[in-house]
C-alpha cells in the first residue's frame, strides 16, 4: 500500500518517532512524504521514502493529486493545532489533502493516537479493503 506523510514543523519529531516505532510495518509498504518530512523519516528509520517537493512549494499539491487519482491508501498528517490556519501559508493546500481523503475514502490520521490505530490496522489486514479501490 502507498502511505503518505505530512507534518507541520512542530510535529516533525513526533512523526519521526512514530515511524521509528512502526518501522517494521512501514517497511512493507511504499512511503511518500513532503520534502523535509520525508528526509527526516528516511534519516531516522533508514526506510526508502519517495519525497515530494517541500510542502510549501507544492508538496501538499502532489500528495493531493495522488489521493485524487486513487494512488494513496493511507495518509498520516500530523497537524499543529496550536498554529493558526493563517500561520500556515499552505493552509489551502493542506485543506485540499484532507478534503481529497474524505472524498476518496482514504484513511487519514491527524494525530499520533489515530495514526497508531491505523498503522496497527494496516498490520492486521483491516485496511485490505483499499485494494478493491485499485
Q: Can you put this structure into words, describing what you see?
A:
It is a single chain. 46% of the residues lie in helices and 15% in strands. The chain contains 6 helices and 5 strands, in the order βααβαβαβαβα. α3 links the parallel β2 (30-33) and β3 (49-51). α1 (12-21) packs parallel to α3 (35-45).
SS summary, helix count: 6
What is the CATH architecture descriptor?
Answer: 3-Layer(aba) Sandwich
Shape: globular
The CATH homologous superfamily is termed Methylglyoxal synthase-like domain
If you compute it from the alpha carbons, what radius of gyration comes out, rounded to the nearest whole angstrom?
A: 13 Å
Strand runs, count: 5
Q: Which structural category do the helix and sheet elements fall into?
A: alpha/beta
> Could you say what the CATH topology is called?
Rossmann fold
Share of helical residues:
40-55%
Q: Widest sheet: strand order? A: 3-2-1-4-5
Unreliable sequence segments: none
What is the terminal separation in angstroms? 10 Å
